[in-house]
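User: Show me an example of a complex going from sequences to structure tokens.

Assistant: Sure. Here are the input components:
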Amino acid sequence: MKVEGRQRARRRSLDERRWLIPLPGFILLALATFPPFFYALYLSFFNFDNQSKVASEFVWLQNYGTILTSSRSLHAFGETLAISLQSTLYSIVLGFAVALLIQRYAPRLDTWLLILFLLPMIISPVVAALNFSLLLNTLYGPIDQVLYNFTHHVVAWTDTPFLATEVIVMNQVWQSTPFAILLFYSGLQSLPTEVLEAARVDGAEGIKFLWFVTLPLMRSIVIVTVLFEFLLGSMQFTPTQLLTSGGPGNATESIALYIYRVGIAETGSVSLAAAAGVVALIVTVILATIWVKTTKAKDLYGIERGAVWEEAEA
Amino acid sequence: MSARRLVGICTGRVALAVMLLLWLFPVYWLVLTAFKLKVDIQSADPIWIVKPVLDNFIWLQQNFAFEPLQHSLIVVFSSVGIATLLGAPMAYALARFPFKQRDDVEFWVISTRMLPPEALIIPYYVIMIHIHLINTLAGLTIIYAAINLPVVVWILLAFYRMMPAATEEAARIDGCSLWSAYFLIVIPMSASSIVAAALIIWIMTWNEFFFSFVLTSSNTTLPVEVASFLANGFNPQYGPMAAAGLILTLPPLLIAFLGRKYLIRGIQGLAGGEAL
């Protein structure tokens, strides 16, 4: 009895100290997020002294004023938006098509097909950029060589703002569509079969079936995927740095590249870049909040079944 | 099976195959370039098939600094180890210990996973200068460990939520403390999810470019070193560049094929969370 009592006491004291084991992780995460964020916020209200690497002069909202008025930073935000929106749209459409094709026509090979379609995602963004620079090389790239055989024209992919943006988008789509494929595929797998059968019995077919039955059932997962793809697109840095170096001119300078250049590469305005970072962070936090709330919703894989019945019947 | 249905299935499969080929063509072209002679790379007509030669790899062996590879291995293994060790108990605590602000803490942990790197790079850069960790492997390791933590938590949290608590309760009745129940019972049960999480962050860290590019210069990692080929003037060494890119791609590729089931589950957890 006595031994048991001692054991229980020991156990209780261990239980009371239960936070000791997860605590280091929480501390590391807190240290890596809060101080940098508040430091960035602090820097953004000051001028930065590049010699001593400290904030020097309080300038109120001047940096934010510059961010919201200078044509270069506004262009960077606009370009980021353009890249993210386009790559989101293409990834979603392409991802859904591939997921649907796998589920319809090759369900037995799904693990292998998924992993093959997934490859661009597990490849380093550096290698992806390198891939596209090989493919799109004006002299030796296969795409231009084939095009030349037909049109006797060579396309300089990174020389006009429009094409350069599309090259970045293409790179982004190649790397981020796998997420969409995987999420949509798991979404399709977990659709309630009774509802699908019922819709079929009611005569829904083809495109109509997709639009009125499958998509409404996958509403939450589509939202999650769209937001996720958008966030991925808005964070990209590597293709703009390596493929176009922001060019021609500053045409493909995304917000990440802008921050890096203004704050670090051009030995300049650390506090201006910090302010741009804060703005980017606020936008992202809003989107991420929606994303977290949607993924936390219990019915990620569909609205309530009763509602679907009504919609299918209507 | 009607003829119409058969035609439908064939069209679908052909469409899928064509898409897959186009999708993987850039990878094929990379491999092809890596094994081509320089004259073949610079030929005026595209060469689609080639007898592989190792010239580019030999060039790399002679001219390429391999310290970045070492740095990459050190940084990746240590940060993945730290993140997994610290992250798994965090996920367990969030899943099982009831406390008042649990939802808020969980929201904070998970939302840090979506923090844009460009928003943090400036403070990280300045802070690293001040604490003398700029251009060090230690500094990079800490940052990678921190950005990997929420990924581990997110993937494992979903798993622990779904796992019935009955097994641990039985162990507790038999005299285990909370954490010995965790280490003896829960970790073996969740081993495959932990592996999935570790593989995902291993690949993500191995591939990472942005932080390494900004925060290190002479002590840099492999992706940055490979990227320097592209920055090298107007006529980069395409053959060696492709070969180096291939070397950089091999580890994730091996992980993808050997651990494909883990990986697929991990990525689903990465973006979808609990319901997946």
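The lines above are the inputs; the final block is the predicted structure for all two components together. The radius of gyration of chain A is 26 Å.
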